[in-house]
Amino acid sequence: MTDKFMNTYHRTGLVFDHGQGARLYTEEGKEYIDFTAGIGVNSLGHNHPRLVKAITEQAGKVMHVCNYFMTEPSLALSEQITAMAGCDKVFFCNSGAEANETLIKIARKYGSSKNPDKNLIVTLKGSFHGRTITTITATGQDQFHKYFGPFTPGFVYVERNDIAALDEALTEKTCAFIFEPIQGEGGVRMVDQAYLKAAEKLCRERDILFVADEVQTGVGRPGAFLACQRMGIQPDMTAVAKGLAGGIPIGAVLARDPAAEVLQVGDHGTTFGGNPLAAAAALVVLSEISAQGFYAEVERKGQLIRAEVASWKHPLVVDVRGMGLMIGIGVTIPPDNVATACRERGLLVLTAGDDTVRLLPPLVITDRELQEGLPKLREALDSLYAGQSSKVRG
Ligand SMILES: Cc1ncc(COP(=O)(O)O)c(C=O)c1O
After folding, report:
1. How far is the CA of 217 from the centre of ligand 1 (A)?
2. CA–CA separation, 220 vs 19, rounded Å?
3. How many A from CA of 311 to the centre of ligand 1?
4. Helix (H, G, I), strand (E, B) or coil at 183
5. Which residues, 6+ apart, have CB-to-CB distance to 216 below 8 Å?
6. Which residues contact 141 (CB under 8 A, 6 or more apart)?
7. Residue whose CA is at the smallest distance from ligand 1 atom 16
8. Fewest Cβ atoms nearer than 10 Å: which of 52, 118, 235, 254?
9. Among the atoms of ligand 1, which is closest to the Cα of residue 185?
10. In CATH, what is the architecture of 16-34+293-393?
């Protein structure tokens, strides 16, 4: 069968049929250990019984009503998520890019209420904020700034962890500073806690909204609900998406006052955002990750992976970075080669940037699944190293 998809992805040719926990199976029954969780989406793994039950039951009640009306799951979700994030209000949408578009609109409206020229947005080099025209403009990587111009004006990029550069860039014309606490797509690059604390202070002093993109880092993955909570910083707005509903599309902007009050009737909206099906799924995810000891387990498993990979002292591995179950392994060879070699051994891993293998396993991955998956990663690295050495010898 030939597919009719646009050529937007490097597809592997694998066709998955079903999954269980951190395992995926093809139709022929070939098993893969999943260290990708759909790029950080399947937070509760595959075929999680509570999630499946909640979605099935909700589908049998009501799947969607327009946003002029409310439903019990979306109301409950608005309460729970704002409580967990320690914020005042939430706007639900369908994806990370849409959440970032929303908070950019809030920032621009907030700025214009202070001064008509207060509309510049500062972001970090190496960041990734989405694939719409405005969010690729917000993305601080030149490779995204081609073909699709003209781009949205008003974005300024600064080096990560350089507080002097940020100090200079944040002017009276700046309405917001947007950052990922850990740059995911950019290569699992850590943004220093001290830098972010200093950035928060600068933003407060200058009436600039301090805004986190936690689309990839958020919702339990960092061993806390949000990475910013672990880092002791409190953004005015935070975007979350990916893992929030465990596989059903959802996004959210979590906002504190005064940002929470900026949008008014007619300023913004979305058809599907926060519909009862997605909300019912998200309620299960929030309930599961709130269980006593859940974040500690995420942290323990993340440390286990980092310690294990570091202990190999592998010649192809430069370093192991990350927080909780968001892990970057710096490698000396193209990371795609590692992903392919892993796949050949029944393990799915991701890449990030041009030098990093990225692991985003389901948050509920078991020790057994880890103990089965990690040796496959090591074997993949060993075989690539052996191939490299034999080429040098030959
Ligand atoms: C930090 C960050 N922001 C935004 C996005 C865009 O999210 P989506 O693909 O749901 O639009 C991503 C996706 O990878 C991301 O990692």
Report:
1. 10
2. 21
3. 32
4. strand
5. 39, 40, 96, 180, 182, 184, 185, 242, 326, 360
6. 125, 126, 127, 128, 186
7. 216
8. 52
9. 16
10. Alpha-Beta Complex (3.90)
Domain 49-289 has CATH 3.40.50.720: no
Q: What would the DSSP string read from start to end of 249-271?
A: --EEEEE-TTGGGS--TTS---S
| Both tokens assigned to 113 | 């209420």
State the closest ligand 1 atom to the C-alpha of 100, by its place in the atom list counted from 1.
Answer: 4
The pLDDT assigned to 24 comes to 98
Q: What torsion do the CA atoms of 301, 307, 311, 314 make, to the nearest 10 degrees?
A: 80
Q: Give the Å distance between the CA of 188 and the centre of ligand 1.
A: 13
- For residue 314, count other CB atoms closer than 10 A to its CB: 18
Residues with C-beta less than 6 Å from any ligand 1 atom? 95-97, 100, 128-130, 180, 184-185, 213, 215-216, 241
Q: Which atom of ligand 1 is nearest to the CA of 251?
A: 10
Residue 322: name the closest of 162, 200, 190 by CA: 190
The answer to whether residue 339 scores a pLDDT higher than 70 is yes
Residue with tokens 């309620």: 283
Give the mean model confidence (pLDDT) for residues 206-223.
98
The rounded Å distance from CA 132 to ligand 1 centre is 10
Question: Could you tell me the two tokens for 247?
Answer: 């596989």
- Say yes or no to pLDDT of 393 above 70: no
Kindly report, residue by residue over 16-47, the tens digit of the pLDDT.
Answer: 999 999 999 999 999 999 999 999 999 999 99
Using the mean position of ligand 1's atoms as its centre, give its distance from the Cα of residue 119 in Å: 23
> What b/e string do you get for 105-119 counting C-beta neighbours within 10 Å, with b at 16 or more?
bbbbbbbeeeeeebb
Give me the pLDDT at residue 164, please: 98
Residue 241 alpha carbon, nearest atom of ligand 1: 10
**pLDDT reported for residue 1:** 65
Pocket test of ligand 1: the residue of 8, 123, 129, 133 to mutate, having most ligand atoms within 8 Å of its CB, is: 129
pTM of the model: 0.97
β-pair partners for 293:
none
Residue 288's pLDDT is: 98
**Ligand 1 geometric centre to CA of 278 (Å):** 18
pLDDT above 90 (res 390): no
What's the whole-number average pLDDT of the chain? 97
User: What's the confidence (pLDDT) of residue 71?
Assistant: 97
